[in-house]
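Protocol step 4 of 6: record predicted structures for both targets in the notebook before any analysis. Target 1:
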Amino acid sequence: MTTTAWRFSGTEGADAAVVKLRQLQAQELIDIQDVAVLRWPLYAMEPTVHEHVTDEGGKLTALVGKLKHGVIDGSMIESAKSDLRPGDSAMVVQSVGAAVDAVAKAFSGDDMVLIRTDMSVPEQDQLRAAMQGGGQQQPGQPPA
């Protein structure tokens, strides 16, 4: 399981990214375990956090999902909060089995920056290269 945090310019960027992730999950290109969305409106003193934004159904369904998949570590969310500026948003995603090239292609052209992750440095480098290339494998880069 991998956890990544992405910063977007604009307070709605993370919301649009969640919609894309749900579409990718429906195509079985990524298995989303948990998602948190952070927003820092220009008028606010600090960011707001909405955890488990992909949970559907009632409270019992959400609880079963959390037990089955796990939840994002609170320290990752707090770290991502510290990387935001007024007017930004962020998305913290816990996932497994991502088709990195397909995910990168879906987010091609989006103004997003990887700000936190629990991946190793070589894995981070591969992910950044894939995202910058819009899903196109870089010469000499092994697949992620």
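Target 2:
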Amino acid sequence: MLSCASEWLACELMDVVRLFPGAETLGISHACETDGTRFAGVFCIGGENFPYSFEDIARNETEKKSLVKRYAKLALYNILSEKYHKKLPWGSLTGIRPTRLAYASLEKTGEFENFFSALGVSKENIALTARVLEGQRGVYERKEGNCDLFVSLPFCPTKCVYCSFITAPIAATRKFMPAYLSALERELEAAKPLLKNLRSVYIGGGTPFVLEAEELERVFQAIAPLRENGCEYTVEAGRPDVFTEEKLGLCKKYGVTRICINAQSFSDRTLAAIGRKHSAQDVVRAFEMARPYGFDINCDLIAGLTGETIAEFENSVDTAVALSPENITVHTLCLKKGAKLKEETATLSEGGMSAMIAYSREKLTAAGYAPYYLYRQKYMAGAHENTGYAKPGKACVYNVDVMEESADNLAVGANAISKRVFYSEGRIERLASPKDLPTYLSKLDKIIEGKKKLFGFASF
């Protein structure tokens, strides 16, 4: 348990506590004060007081709140790190986007390395962050009017045990498909006047290729009038058990430039354990089927899947490199609310996670891939990260824009979260559509009006 005068700060501090298994039982209290230049506080843990203080200047209330959070989390991290004799790869950082902090520090001081070091970030991860910023050069751009379009198709053949998305087996959701496709068509038609400088289109899920070819073509046809500038166009094709030549041909016909083949693992034993109904060789065949169409290919792997050994994960990395996709993203398994795996276990041990991550960095770098985006999530095994690697010139614009929140994101469909970036005000406004398919369908008119308002149109 953790008691704190500010509820928002207590939530932030609990993110640090969870990094240290067993710390949640300690009974921690916290109090702090600040005059805008000096931040002082005290943690009480097991009857022992741990005071701390930092000197810094807050220019406004928003910055003061941010600094209080930063220094309180750092102080608690240092206390627990010493108590448990354990240092973590990202130190006291618990946020989703470390690179956002790096960019902010660069803008303020001209460097981020000393800042990250003071927060306990390892030398390896400071170096990784620097490589990611370099990998984003020429792609990262903060400009008023930049926008990406996301289309949600939350349908899957089956649900994997690690998945927390709203997807359900297609057998249970197909009855909603006709109404859902009509709703997407309405949303996309209403979205056209709201898009300014469109940088990318991304159809995600779920597993979009689980749709029948004629259903998928309806989505492509609805998107076509919005993508007249020929920007990057990605389809998260997903799992090989739903690949067909007809669907790949439709992607080519409508100008798709990139597809995702979500391998996750090249171990048959692991694939069966996570609920997949295909083999590793099926993934290889999906690559072979897609290559003649000339798409850039993104491939996902997950480190730490159910019972997977270091050797099995290393083989997955080796196999992915041999298949030579343009992008390889290495995810760290995390326990998310709504995932079957979360229901079956409360925590994830680090195990060989550090070795897995280290191997992927070394192997992918040696193969000519460079990291170009990274993000983190709560409850990640070993407190690591998800990192996307790309061949030279093959970074995915959508991934950079979304992870850095450097462009507006107009998202349509169930569980789609639109974001409007207000650069001059330093804030981001979000609008989430309902996750539940029937609720989304019933509230479509309200959803469309909300997006018109968010992106600057009161009415047509």
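Step 5 preliminary note on target 2. Residues 338-348 have pLDDT under 50 and may be disordered. The CA atoms of residues 39 and 68 lie 7 Å apart.
Proceed to step 6 after PI sign-off.
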